[in-house]
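INFO worker-7 received task bundle
INFO bundle size: 2
INFO processing item 0
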Amino acid sequence: MKINATSRCGLPSRARFNSLTAIAAAVLLLLGPGSATGRADILFNAPSANYSYYGMYSPYATAVSFTLADSYYVSTIDVVLRTPPSTSFNTFNFSLQSALTGPMTVFASESLTAPLGVMSTQVMTVNETLLPGTYYLAGLVPGYAGTPVIPGNVDGWLLSTGSYNDAAGSIANGVWFGSDPPIFESAPGYPGYVAPAFAVIGSAVPEPSMWAMLALAAASLPAVCRRKRA
């Protein structure tokens, strides 16, 4: 006698598999194309011009600001740095924060160590969901100001080209630096006061309506299991 394999909930295994596959496909559709692969997108990019840099021989932070138009999950931020061939100060402290002065929220901070004598891209981990609004990425080299250096050959943050990919909102075309609080300087076109080179990596956050549809899809699972064999 031929016996058809059945699932625990009484639904034939093939039919149950097909139902779950359909629900899983709906979930992936709701969450977006990046959810199945873990792929992150470039939310902002101010590409490096690979030459000039903002010197960070200062006790004050150098910063760039960007504005998110919607909520996004930010995984990492890349910054393009340079150091002279001989220095004891090649650690840059970066933080992502809500303001440059007064009460502020720090969403992420990290000490980034750059190799000596070259330009390099360093990665700061964020792993935070950020709401629509303006954010500041600020960096400084602790203990560096006042130490002996060769003029014109100091730690720095590379200038961008001044042409931005700002699909998730907008990048302020300029730089904050020079005092506490920092002063914003802007001059269009490279090598004026453009944003320093950085990139924000992350993904869109599903709208509440999408989460509601996802919950509805999940709620349908018990109904699948209650179906009786024909």
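INFO item 0 finished
INFO processing item 1
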Amino acid sequence: MATIHASEELLAAPLPEMIQGLGVAVAEANMALAKVDDANLVYTINQAEIELKVALSISKETQTGADAGLKLSAFNVNASYSRTYSFNEEASSLIKLTLAAVPRPA
């Protein structure tokens, strides 16, 4: 089975799903840390900052002949992508996300 790197999994990812996936990954890491058995300490990720350099692609979706809206996809900008598509990294978009733990709403 081929090894898939995290950066390769982000190629051509729909932007909302990519952001959701990053948030879920942090949440799952927090749940795993909560299971660490240490009587004196609790391990948690209180805040995660994520920066992605991406090339954005907007495409029009149709469903049975009717317009269904626009789809925004993000392509991870790495050396391979830049070389394959002659893409200038300076033209990439930067997405910054800060995921923080907050109390549940009452």
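INFO item 1 finished
INFO post-check item 1: The chain has three helices and four strands.
INFO post-check item 1: The mean pLDDT is 77.
INFO worker-7 idle
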